[in-house]
Specification:
- By secondary structure, this protein is an alpha+beta fold.
- The chain has a domain at about 1-145: TATA-Binding Protein (2-Layer Sandwich).
- Helices cover about 60% and strands about 20% of the residues.
- The protein contains three helices and six strands; from the N terminus they run H-E-E-H-E-E-E-E-H.
- It has helices spanning about 1-20, 50-60, 120-225; strands spanning about 25-30, 35-45, 65-70, 75-80, 90-95, 100-110.
- Helix 1 (about 1-20) packs antiparallel against helix 3 (about 120-225).
């Protein structure tokens, strides 16, 4: 049963991922020192700190000479061969959305000009950002799945405890019923013993009366001896 429920949770979680199309849009943002062309994507099931940490890690993977996180996350002289043969400065801003989602805005400075849709590296940049967003969203869903699995395990343990308690209660009832049955047998036997006792008392009373008569008769006999 547990495996079935967990499987259902997995199916539901991946259905959410599959049903949620993550797309990257082109935008113009105040980023990289001015109003520049940029890319924006919405990341679900995550938080600002996680997105920031993972994005810094990504930049370091592109051999960034330094990564700073002041107003923006800045990767200096990154090597992203799919976008450009030259080093690139990458700027990123993370915005918390009111609905609990995270918006990631990224701009690529190719060296005097920011990457636009007309540049041949545009699709590679879009792919890079989208894959990052998909990865973070899946991580968030997997975390939620694990939390639900833990709650499922707790619920199953509680159900098992209740079942065992129920078994113990039934055993207690069986023992109590056995004791009642034994007590009823003892009561019935006692009633029979009372009846026998009463009958025996009648015989005993007659014996006492007869013996009283014998004592009185012998006493009279004694008085007559002079």
């Amino acid at each position: 049963m547990r495996k079935c429920i967990i499987s259902l949770l997995v199916i539901v979680s991946f259905s959410i991922t599959q049903g949620q199309t993550i797309s990257v849009s082109n935008t113009v943002e105040e980023i990289g020192g001015g109003e520049n062309k940029a890319f924006a994507v919405i990341i679900s099931q995550s938080d600002e700190q996680t997105v920031k940490k993972e994005w810094k890690s990504l930049l370091k993977g592109y051999k960034s000479e330094k990564v700073t996180t002041k107003k923006e996350i800045f990767g200096d002289n990154c090597l992203v061969g799919q976008i450009s043969d030259n080093t690139i400065d990458i700027y990123a801003k993370i915005k918390q959305q009111g609905d609990g989602n995270i918006e990631l805005v990224v701009a690529f400075n190719l060296g005097g000009a920011f990457l636009t849709s007309s540049h041949e590296g545009h699709n590679a940049a879009e792919k890079m950002i989208r894959e990052f967003a998909v990865k973070l969203t899946k991580i968030g869903i997997e975390k939620e799945l694990k939390e639900n699995e833990k709650e499922l395990e707790k619920a199953e343990k509680e159900l098992e405890r209740l079942k065992k308690e129920n078994d113990r209660l039934h055993q207690n009832i069986s023992r109590a019923n056995g004791m009642i049955e034994d007590a009823n047998k003892s009561i019935d036997q006692a009633k029979l013993d009372i009846e026998t006792n009463l009958k025996t008392q009648v015989t005993a009373k007659k014996s006492v009366e007869d013996q009283k008569s014998n004592v009185a008769e012998v006493g009279e006999k004694l008085k007559k001896v002079k």
